[in-house]
Amino acid sequence: MTQNSTVLSGIQLDQFMDRLEVEHQEHGADYLLSQLRGQPLKAASLESIDRLHVLWVNAGDVDAARAVLAEDGQALLEACADDARNELKLNLLVYQLRLANYLKDEEGLLQGLDSLQQLSNERLDFDVEQYRRYRIFDELEHTTLDVALKAIEVRHTLALINPGRHALRAWDDADQHRRRARVLAAHEQDEQAREAALSAIAALRTAGEDQDVDANDWLWLGDGLIEIVPLRLAMFEQPVVQSIAELSLPRRREWEVRLARLAARALQAQGDLPGALKICEVASRSLDSDGGDNFINFELPWLLESGRIEEAGQRAFMDVYEMLEQMWPGTPFWIHDRLLEAEDNSVWWPLCVMRACDNAALLERFVACLPERSEATPALNPLLEALHATRENPELRDALFAQAREEAQRRAPNHPWITRLVAVREGDAGLIDAKTELAMLQDAVKAGGLQDRRSAYSVFCAHVKAFGVIDALKQPMPQLASGMYCYEYAGYVEDKVEEQVKSLDEATTNEAWSLLRFLQRAAYEQGRVRMEQCFASGSGHRYDGCAHLYSMLCNNLAINYRCYNDQQMYDQALELHACGIAASSFAEHYHGVLNARICQKDYAAIAEAAEQLWHYAADYGYSRHEPDDYLQDVTFALYRLDRDREMLIWLERILKWQEERGVSDKDLEYSPLFARLKVAMYLAHSLPEAATGLWQRYASQVNERDESSLLGCAGDVLKDLGRKEEALAYYQRAILRSDPDNAVDQRNNKVFNEMIAELQAPQKPAGKAWWQIWK
């Protein structure tokens, strides 16, 4: 019996559940149950049904939860409009599946899946795509074999009834067979699993021309099935190789890395672990610009399984050292496992812990990935005890570092990496002076052959502390092992210089920036050589295989050639942009091409480059796209090419772009307003009506701003339109509004005075007609 007969529903029920969801965390399940049983509850919306039945589950009354879904769900169905009923049914069935899965109710799951299958035979006037992607179907694939196979069948049915997936029918069929193969393999139905895997391959191989199947689909299929059919590697490789034949070399190399990963997994599945590890020389090449996606989740366990402990330790260390909190979650687990092994005396494992202590975020990530320690776990060695203690209390980080350092020193006295990590830590803590830190780092780099970005940057920072930023920038560019190291080093140093110049005078600041640009040029050039050698040979450093990183490096080097230290290396910049676009295009490359062409004053090329930039930005996006910045240059180029009508196209684009961003004419800043006046001036010669309309649109903004340059430009427009008196007035206003201390204004005034003199000059008398010459 409930204590209160008033049925709680609607907004009152929502408020009640809001309170219970909070109080449940504070008071527990018994309190929640008593509150739910305190009065009748009726959920009258899909959302409230979802929330209420979950509350009953959390309170421990699954019968009440079932009742909410059955009774309140049926009442909601009866009140629902006909055209929305089937979607509501589908959602209620999904809730029933979730509940049955939570209760491990196999019969209920099969019944619910059957109901979903039957519902798919009815008319479904809604987008079923989102339901096909629901997590419940993934979860059911990890239950019993019958439920898993039925869930896969239902998901496939939902895909087939979606007309929007017509071009993906082959993919959907392959996905169904792929999922079946994986489930069957998990239940040790090996022969059936292989048959399903071959059916998945056949689904893509026999796809018609109307089906959307590409290299990514073959890679996806291979990724899911290679351990089930390792002898069929060629079936995945061949279509990929055919489809990538015309790609640029950097992009082909990336695909070769992906295929190498399939090949390595195929060999490992066949028991050839040495062969798999040999292929890891290519397979472990990073496909992310930050060094991630580097196959460590396969390679590290294989190295340990094969007994190559030193290599495994170094691989784990570099993952912690380079990736920081983005490291693979399995890395700390394996480090912990090796520290448990009394006979493993590799220095790399305590070095990993030393590195993990370098910052709080890294250490938090590191300890979160460790295996749980139960009360029954016996006492561990001192380093592991300290590691688990730090898991409970992050403030013990310094003690953990000291323990890891002691253990590393015991295993490999004076190891270069110990010196390198200790130097930075003690330098930051003020325990050693800058010159000592620098000497320690230089010794470690030399002794260990350390050629990574972080060590090089640590040396640079120590040099800044010891001798100042100018002296540090004058040091030779260090030799780094990979293109990624070079790219990142250039960015790190720029951040340091930006910090340092805040306390320098103007002359020293300018010198610092100039030296920085030369250093960055050397870094990018070195990185370009590293990466291009890797692409050309197919072998190289782990961090030299990412086509997008190469593209970014090309872009930065092109900017350096074009913009800094008066190098004016425009042809070289254009070559770099072309390389970057071929490797991994992004909008900045197209903008860089346009800027280089503007610098070269190649008007036809300017017009072409602007078109490419505009359309690329429209198709793929460009967060920093400001067409007002190049409008003046493009329209001037068209003016010089006598392609005046194309200026109207650009004008229309700009005005529409402005409108789409909700920017009114009154909101225009100085530069876009000035650019529009320049367009009006170029139009005035051949399209005076368009020029006049543009001037009239912005005249009030020009007058309101009353700025010298804008007023002078307005004079140019009116002069070219033949409106002499108005032009004179604007030139005179421009001179009056100019700043006598501004060199640009004073140069402009000279031009304005010339224009005034030209407009005020007496007109030459008309010459005598030929028939009057004799008079």
> What's the β-strand tally?
0
Number of helices: 39
Distance between the termini: 129 Å
Radius of gyration: 35 Å
How many strands, what sense, and barrel or not for the largest sheet?
A: none
DSSP strand content = under 5%
Given the helix and strand composition, which structural class is it? Answer: mainly alpha
Mean of pLDDT? 94
Global morphology: globular
The amount of helix comes to over 70%
Low-confidence stretches: 768-775
Protein name: Tetratricopeptide repeat protein
Structural topology:
Layout: H1 10-27, H2 29-36, H3 46-59, H4 62-79, H5 82-102, H6 106-119, H7 129-132, H8 135-140, H9 145-160, H10 169-186, H11 190-205, H12 215-225, H13 233-243, H14 249-269, H15 273-283, H16 296-305, H17 309-323, H18 330-340, H19 348-356, H20 360-368, H21 382-392, H22 397-411, H23 416-428, H24 434-448, H25 453-467, H26 469-473, H27 483-500, H28 506-537, H29 547-563, H30 570-584, H31 587-600, H32 603-620, H33 628-640, H34 644-660, H35 670-683, H36 688-705, H37 708-720, H38 724-737, H39 743-760
Helix pairs in contact: 1-2, 1-3, 2-3, 3-4, 4-5, 5-6, 6-9, 9-10, 10-11, 10-12, 11-12, 12-13, 13-14, 14-15, 16-17, 17-18, 17-19, 18-19, 19-22, 21-22, 23-24, 24-25, 25-27, 27-28, 28-29, 29-30, 29-31, 30-31, 31-32, 32-33, 33-34, 33-35, 35-36, 35-37, 36-37, 37-38, 37-39, 38-39
